[in-house]
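Key idea: predict the complex, not the pieces.
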Amino acid sequence: MVDVTRLSIRHITTYSYEQPVHYALQKLRLTPRSGHGQSVVEWSSTVTGGRKQLVYDDPLMNHTELVKVDSGATHVEIVSEGIVDVEDRHGVIGRHSGFAPLWLYETATPLTAAGNNVRHLAAQLRQETDGMDDLSRMHRLAADIGTAVQYEIGQTNAGTTAEMALTAGHGVCQDHAHIMIATARHLGYPARYISGYLLMDGQTGQDASHAWCEIHLETLGWIGFDVSNGICPDGRYVRVAVGRDYGDAAPIVGIRQGDGAEALTVSLQVQQ
Amino acid sequence: MKSLSFFDEMLSAPDSVRDPYKVYHDWFSQDDIKRLRRKSQEAEAFFRRIGITFNVYGQEEADERLIPFDIVPRIISAKEWSKLERGIEQRVRAINAFLHDIYHRQEILRAGRIPCELIAGNEAFTPEMIGVNPAGGVYTHIAGVDLVRTGEDDFFVLEDNVRTPSGVSYMLENRETMLQMFPELFAQMKVRPVSPYPQLLRRSLSASLPAGTRNSEPVLAVLTPGIHNSAYFEHAFIADQMGADLVESQDLRIEDGYVAMRTTQGYKPIDVLYRRVDDDYLDPLTFNPDSLLGVPGIMDVYRAGNITIANAPGTGIADDKALYSYMPDIIEFYTGERAILKNVPTWRCSEPEALRYVLDNLSELVVKEVHGSGGYGMLVGPAASKKELSMFEAKLRARPENYIAQPTLSLSTVPILAKSGLAPRHVDLRPFVLVSPNRIDITPGGLTRVALKKGSLVVNSSQGGGTKDTWVLGD
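Result:
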């Protein structure tokens, strides 16, 4: 009997604009896909203050929607919600598939380029784990990063690179994922960024969606590692989008013409 | 510089005229050279009036400059052309198959026919194109294959130019000018026309409509970076000639899932966008976020099947100079045939042995940047000074993977009208190829570029080259 968790998710993103919007687009990667141990029972996304233009799968097979903000809008709300059944597979995603070649995940990106500190971390790990199998080595790497980089909100942002966060010694889940990806790639392992949802113990409401990483091992294929929580993803994790780094998997990216500030608020509930 | 013997396309010996040039040569010999000189000046005035000028990159005073035009045509026989045509068609077919493969299953890498690192580490590989199925399987709607000739039967492909080849306006205007100046010659010789090109372009692009089109008639537009672009004239000219709208970034937006252009009757969805904006600037939402020249969201529309982008993004991987040396293998892999047109032997400086050879023989080789174009960042060994050679040696040692080297080809010559009368100058040829889902059209002729300086082998207009009208003779 497989252990399945049924998760119910409601993710509300709200943009408020200081001045009415003239023209703006938003690209959403907010819809989980079925497969690899998760099954989407139902899902919907609704937009107020904007209109969906397109729905398609991107090169990495992320379900993507393009939204145009209504002209004159000062407020846009995106509600993405549904129910997903998740099996506990102890982080094992398995064989690589799709047109995106594995080597795409071996190449450093600007956010995951190895600087001195990443290189040093890699060298140290190589020494410490000499003779160890790949899986144990990656567990060790995840633990080392968790120790070296404290989880702390507000110190880093979407543009913070792996090297910067490692040097600073603090960051959020995105930074943890980037550092692990950068180091693993530097050691020759394909690695990728995952954005998604996490059911947290005793806590329904959350401030932001979650992120972790997956490393490709020859023996097992893709394996997830959540550095921030020190575990491999289990039945509490819902994968939404995959990328070489945050840029490919970001839940929302947008472009806007015109002046004035915008404010973003996120309300997220994940419950069993 | 060593004295090499060059193939002269007009004279096979000092007093022996090659067949394709016989009629022309007779006519020229009987004509008055003073009259021809006057004609030449007229041609220049004509070009200035219609405005075919270009800006030279990297010059402080980027004044508009006229590309010199030479009134002696370059003439190709029907038989010569037919071989070129078959060779070009084969090559372009293979390139399209390669592009589809490289952005899907990558069979050619699985088969080990080209090394994976060549693609994996290549900036020209565009991950955003993975899994995209362009309408009709066409990636390179327009190609401008650069050819050089070294002998009676020896044609080499220098570059495939499958990104956004320019120069077609010169092909058309050069012919127009020649027709006006020398109608008597066209009456005597059967020269195949180039004038159908704009209508063929229109037909070819219209044959690659996106799956999601909702227009009853194909709507085409030409996207230009704007008036400050060196090829702006050509963009406007092509749009006008094929009856399409010329648009810039600010004319376009996303409407109901389509890329639409502003018209007097509101926004109108575009089916096929012939864009003369480079990939990196095409979509700030997907590529360079700072670009003001592109259309935010166009890649999303493209992926969803609601627009055709000509040429497709990511075609540069087939144009890559490091990959060029594998073209014979690529042709064989996808067509099962041997390449009809020759490839120039190429040393890939990323390979240590090749690099050693190149460094040892630098003064005899041509060295090019892997991603470069337009003759920039290029070394012509035999013409280079000691200082230039040593500067290039340092560059090669610092970043060998950024360069390839080729032997200095003995480019054929065609006479120009010089002060002393006819004088041979080196030329190349860029025929223009149109690819649609079920046919390939190659306009008989193309752009002949000529190095106007005596002995020079660099034909690029940015480096002092001129152009000639290219005549392909009928049977």
